[in-house]
Amino acid sequence: MQHASSPAPGRPRVFYGWWIVVAGAVVAFSSGPGQTYGFSTFIDNIIEDTGLERTSLSALYAVGTGVSAAMVLAVSRLADRYGVRRTLPLVALGVGLACISMSMAQGAFVVFVSFSALRALAQGSLTINTTVLTAQWFVRKRGRAMSLQGLGFPLSLAVIPLLARTLIDQIGWREAYVVLGVMVWVLVIPLAFFVIRERPEEMGLFPDGADGPPPGETADAAALATATPDRRRVLTSLRFWWLALPLSTPALVVTGLVFHQSAIMQEQGLGPTVAAATFVPMAVLSAGSALVTGGLVDRFRPQVVFAASLLAMLAGMAMALFINSLWQAMVYAGLLGVCSGIGQVVNSVTWAHFYGRFGLGRVQGAAVMVNIAASALGPLPLAALAGMFDGFRPGVAVMALLPLVSILAILTARPPDASRVGA
Question: Residue 35 sits in which domain range?
Fold first, then answer.
């Protein structure tokens, strides 16, 4: 029997890693019920049915998302310890159960628990598993692979809100959550069993479909990395935080804007249907920018590409101050989509680029934890400032300072210490 670390000379006509990318895109799509754009579609119905106030729901969102960030850090290490193929079905099962739990919520406590689980498992753990998996299969073509896998996110952005809105109108918001939960089971669990494989070495292959291991790796690198404890500094590394905080800015700002999308549009005289429809140009521009970004980050520094995305976000925030027509709403959504598409690819590539492809769950989990914590903060200040000033414009103007600061930080960031020593 051939050893996993000694790939056979012959290779399949289509590198199996591209099937992994397709599977990753489906899993990314399935994260929709736990993403802000998925939850935002239900907000008005939840407020009306449960009696919760918008500010209270925003506070529950913030606390629940913060709790989910801590949960993600723990769950992400399972991908390193047990592998994505074993972890992913359990995560998908949990996402479906969380959707069913949300459908039965009558008050603040069940909303909080269900939402925390949705954020941790759908937004956090599904995303981590797909990113870690693709990083194992690609090195030289990692940017392009991540951008193709990432198409699952804009597709989800385009489909899930409209699907949820249709289900809510036809069968009710509680039943809609049940349908979304079952959808996740049907899409993800079979992929985990029948398509996903952990590393190319398990199939007698090398990353990128190459004839040998990537530069700097030996043929036994995968086995050695699995057997060696990972002692790299992450959360105690200043360089990690100098990079992680700017990278989390879109999560904070875009989440806040998307969370209050319906209310922002209604403030400008546009209805909830328009608010849901704006997710389509956001998704299209997100997909297009992600595809372009994949090639760019394989050629240039990810930090420079990311700074461009922050400029797009800043332009979108400026548009949010003056939206009063459908076409302006579409342009605003498209700019946010450009930022999201670029940011998603850069976030996926950056940590594997600096830390390598082994033991990545621990690093990626810490980065996702920071992103989720940032997204937890976004809706609350916008809701509070809207209550103080009777509108969302002051809050949007204040938050516009964040991309400016983040551009300066990201362009001066140095790669985190990738050594395997330290605490």
Answer: 17-412
